[in-house]
Structure formats: C-alpha cells, structure tokens
C-alpha cells in the first residue's frame, strides 16, 4: 500500500529534511567527482559486499560451533553424572558396613554413660542441701535492691514536682505581663497624607501618589513590551510553519524517488539471486557433531549398565 498518511511532528519533519538534504549533497558531490574524472566506486562496494558476506558466514559458523559445544558439554555432564552415581553406589555399600560397626561401638558407649549418670545423680542429691542455703541468701539480696530502688524513685518524683511548680509560676508571671500590656490605651485613628514623603532625608524618597504614578507608567511600558513580544512570536511561528511546509514538500519528493530506486534495486537483486548455492558446512561444525553422536552413544550404554 503506497502513500500511507503519517502524521509527523515538527522535530521529525526537520530531522528527516536534514537527512534528505545530506543525501542530496552527497549525491551532488559524487556526480561532481565523476565529472572531474574520478572512478566509480561500485566495484569497491561489490567487493566490500562480498567480504561482508564471508564475514557473516564465519559468524554463523562460529555461532553454530558455540551451540554444538554447549550440547557436547551437556552430554559430557550427563555422562559424568552417571559416573558419579555409580561411584556413590559403591561408597554407600562401604558406608553401610562402617555404620554397623559404629552402632555396635555406640551401644557399648551408652552402657558406660548410664553408669556415669547414676553416679552423677548421687552427687547431685548430696549437693541439694547446700543449694537451699544459697537460695535464702539470694532472696535477701533481692529484697535489699527493691528497697533502694523505691527510695531513689521517691527522690526523682520530688524533683519533678518542684520543676513543674517553677514552670507554672513563670507562666503566671508572663500572663500578668501580657494583660498589663493589653490594658494600655492605643491610638486607633491616624490621618495619613498621601502627598507627603516619609521625611527620612533620602534623595529617591517619594510619596504614595508619586509611587502610584510611577507604577502606572511601568505597567504601561510592560504591556507595550508584551504586545511587541507577542507580535514577534506570531511572525516567528508563521515563518516556522512555512519552513515545515517546504520541508514536507521536499520529503514527499525524496520519498517518491527513494521508493522507485528501492523497487528497481529489489528487482535487480531478485534477478541476481535466481540461482543460489547451498553453503558448505564448516569443518569444526562437522567435528563437533561427530563428537556429540559418540558421547550420546556412550551415555546410553552407561545408562543401560546403571
């Protein structure tokens, strides 16, 4: 489908216009070089294309080698896992024999420990009498600590009450001072002359009337500046819109020419690629495939033994 309407913003229009402008300047420069006797770089571009194709084939072969190496590593890991299982089976048999011997030794050791426990129980019964006297001393020591803590708490409470009384006294004095200040008479009505200055002796001193006149003049000047700036913005906006329209016309022309050139190039490429050759596989890929088959057969054989 041709001529699909696409809505572009100002930045996209200017960016695409600059791109086509650079392409046009490059094409004009190439034509000028050809007119001056310079060679056509098409042969170099074809050679460069062939070299890129070879590089691409090498990269694809390298990717395939990595994939096959990963598959080979997987086969080797599975085979190693099977070998570990077989080795663990042998170790398990050996451990069962050792476990039976250890159980026999453990039974003998338990009999000896039961004898030692009976002896220890006798010693604990004898030491229970001494423990009772120590418990009475500990209880007396705890009662002494509780009495000391109660005395300390009473002293802290007394200090807190004294501090709170001092705060209340200061607050009462402050309230009395505020009430005394509020009871003083104040002048509520005062005549103000707007034409008089403050009398501070300054050169730039003005009355309120002069300040109002100066403010009105400043507002008029600000309004005139805003009107002038608004007119300038409108002119700039109109110029920008005209520039965007010119760029859109230029872009439409370039797109049409590029579409025709791309169609011709596609037809030429299709005509050249009628007879394609199948690429030969890399030798490293073939060797890795052979190794993978061998490891898979060895793994299946090991699985049968297990």
UniProtKB/TrEMBL annotation:
Residues 264-283 are annotated as: Disordered. It comes from the Eukaryota. Residues 265-283 have a biased composition (Basic and acidic residues). The keyword Coiled coil applies. Keywords: Coiled coil. The keyword Cell division does not apply. Residues 85-178, 208-238 form a coiled coil. This is CFA99 protein. It comes from Jacana jacana (Wattled jacana). The lineage of its organism: Eukaryota, Metazoa, Chordata, Craniata, Vertebrata. The gene is Cfap99.
């Amino acid at each position: 489908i041709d001529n699909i309407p696409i809505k572009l913003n100002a930045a996209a229009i200017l960016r695409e216009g600059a791109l086509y402008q650079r392409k046009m300047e490059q094409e004009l420069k190439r034509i000028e070089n050809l007119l001056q006797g310079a060679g056509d770089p098409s042969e170099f571009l074809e050679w460069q294309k062939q070299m890129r194709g070879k590089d691409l084939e090498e990269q694809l072969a390298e990717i395939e080698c990595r994939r096959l190496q990963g598959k080979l590593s997987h086969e080797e890991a599975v085979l190693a896992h099977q070998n570990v299982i077989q080795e663990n089976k042998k170790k398990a048999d050996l451990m069962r024999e050792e476990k039976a011997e250890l159980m026999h030794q453990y039974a003998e050791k338990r009999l000896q420990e039961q004898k030692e426990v009976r002896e220890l129980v006798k010693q604990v019964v004898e030491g229970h009498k001494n423990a009772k006297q120590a418990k009475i001393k500990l209880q007396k020591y705890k009662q002494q600590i509780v009495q000391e803590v109660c005395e300390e708490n009473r002293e802290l409470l007394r200090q807190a009450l004294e501090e709170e009384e001092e705060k209340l006294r200061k607050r009462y004095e402050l309230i009395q001072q505020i009430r005394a200040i509020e009871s003083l008479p104040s002048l509520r009505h005062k005549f103000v002359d707007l034409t008089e200055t403050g009398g501070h002796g300054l050169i730039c001193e003005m009355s309120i009337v002069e300040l109002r006149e100066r403010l009105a003049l400043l507002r008029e000047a600000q309004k005139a500046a805003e009107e002038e700036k608004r007119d300038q913005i409108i002119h700039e906006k109109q110029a920008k819109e005209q520039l965007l329209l010119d760029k859109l016309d230029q872009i439409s022309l370039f797109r049409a020419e590029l579409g025709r050139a791309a169609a011709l190039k596609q037809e030429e490429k299709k005509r050249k690629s009628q007879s394609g050759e199948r690429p030969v596989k890399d030798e490293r890929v073939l060797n890795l495939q052979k190794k993978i088959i061998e490891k898979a057969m060895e793994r299946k054989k090991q699985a049968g033994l297990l």
